[in-house]
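Troubleshooting log. The previous structure file for this entry was overwritten by mistake, so regenerating from the original sequence record. Sequence copied from the archived sheet and checked twice against the printout by T.R.
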Amino acid sequence: MSDDPKPIEALTKAEAKDELERLASEIARNDELYHGKDAPEISDAAYDALKQRNLAIEARFPELARPDSPSQKVGAAPLPTFAPVTHSRPMLSLDNAFSDEDVRDFVNSVYRFLGQIPDESIAFTAEPKIDGLSISIRYENGTLVNAATRGDGTTGENVTANVRTISEIPNTLPKDAPEVVEIRGEIYMAKPDFLALNARMEEEGKPTYVNPRNTAAGSLRQLDPTVTARRKLKFFAYAWGEISGMPADTQSGMIETFARWGFPTNPLTRRLSRVEDLLAHYHEIGLERGELEYDIDGVVYKVDRLDLQARLGFRSRSPRWATAHKFPAEQAFTEIENIDIQVGRTGALTPVARLKPVTVGGVVVTNATLHNADYIKGIGNNGEPIRDEDHDFRIGDTVIVQRAGDVIPQVLDVVLDKRPEGAKPYPFPDKCPVCGSHAVREKNEKTGKLDSVTRCTGGFVCAAQAKEHLKHFVSRNAYDIEGLGSKQIDFFFETENDTMRIRTAPDIFTLEKRQAGSMTKLENIDGFGKVSVRKLFDAIDARRTIALNRFIYALGIRHVGETTAKLLARSYGTYDELEKAMKAANGYTGEAWDDLNNIDGIGEVVARAIVEFFNEPRNIGVIDDLLEEVTPEAAEIPAISSSSPVAGKTIVFTGSLERMSRDEAKAMAERLGAKTAGSVSKKTDLVVAGPGAGSKLTKAEELGIEVITEDAWFDLVGEGA
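Regenerated output below.
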């Protein structure tokens, strides 16, 4: 990058495109230098500045975002220099708590899920959250056989040779250890060792490192294990993956076992039952944080009993039985240089503050979301003031910025006595900056309040929405068409050639047919070729049939994510039934509307969005064209034992259940292939009623639906013991 790069606001579209290409290449090169060769050429701040400039250009020209852009990289894919290792059990992340109240909510949620009164009978472990690199180490017959990084949670990098160099990790386990053991924990670099390494690098005239965490990660990924050995990496064990025989029945017991086997465990780990004791331990560790020889960014709480962990189970990406209580975010002062408006896939206009670069928590921050028009004014989602009077955000203001959870930049407040003379309140636009359509805040018919989000009314007319919808349609968890990424969508959307243009999803599947009769062949376009075009057409053809849940998710319905798409697919079985039911639910009354709202996990807001989508003629027109080309498969019934007596049935639980909590009951029913509903209707097959059952029981009796007790339920499903 030149000493004086051209200001982003002064870049032309063509210049921005060239700059994004250069930045992608430069950032990728520095990634390889840092992680693969341990030979960085630029400082961490300079590297962050490259990434932030890339993000800022993409924010101004979202249509130019490249498929290889650093902003497109989520998580950490395995490095090509190390063989991939698929974890026998996923390495999931934890939910975060940021306040004492969040911790109380977590503890109460554990008791609530288990159907118990919070009486301090459940013990938790509290351990420091090490800011290092997660690792899984596998032993077979007492011998270390491989070690892998967390990676994306499913697949990591094989770093066995390097892990063997860490003296704190034993190469063998005692004879009484189970046949298969996966020890999981955190590899880190102690602060004294980090300082000593930097001193040595400085003496040798080499670049120094920014922080111990990144240095530990880079050290573990060295191609030469002798380099790793010289870095003096350390390890704490705190969890496990696959294990053929459990040596203990509690979290604390497992940690004690790890210590007995020769693994370092954190001496600050405590077993506590009272919420106030958990919080006291957290605050005590927070005060000691600066004195520890390793970096930590919070405290992790885990339910101690393993049988309770099993009952609590997992959400999609995290366990219910654990949470990470993060330390407060770091803050800094900077200036708002400008406020830009981004238009998302759903038409939402999001204001983004362009900030004078400032380092917060070791990261250079140059932009942060301002959420919506109300947030800029200092008004919360419920109309309440969230800042002092006149503390709105204006261009030129000095503001307080923090990184929440050490990740997300937030603009918290304005320093009013530093407001420049003549600074004017920000006029939130009433027209879409992309297509010029009216931008409005919808009124909630039920509450009478305005939606906090301003949305473009242009729909498919708006290039930002149409293009982003296409990118969503071909995304990984939707149609996932290989060779049709963000860059290719940009090309197909913007081309003026009718035989290549893709403006809506159906155009994807007619591309090959239109190209067959064209004089201008895609294979002759720069960036394509005969082989790549053939692969693209084959990839498109391979998606002419698709799972119903992926089809629904791909439609881009507001509020409908992967989980809701699966609920809809399972509830309606086929696309035709779904569309028919949603059209019948128009007007938000009647049996079809009630059935939709009765699906566990779908509330009224989501239900309204779904019904609105299927009753918009433009949407149905696009879908009809799409169905001429593709076939969504009927939803698969989960693989359930043929002995399950409730497979495919709709179950309603009501009253006070005594042997299980309501959440456990629903989880059990769904595990056995049943559907659960929140209310009784003609489609209900069975009602399980506990003491105190009221209107639901009455309605079931009126409709002649079978009603059984909780004990009878356990007898029915064969779990009566």
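The mean pLDDT is 86. Archived copy saved in two places this time.
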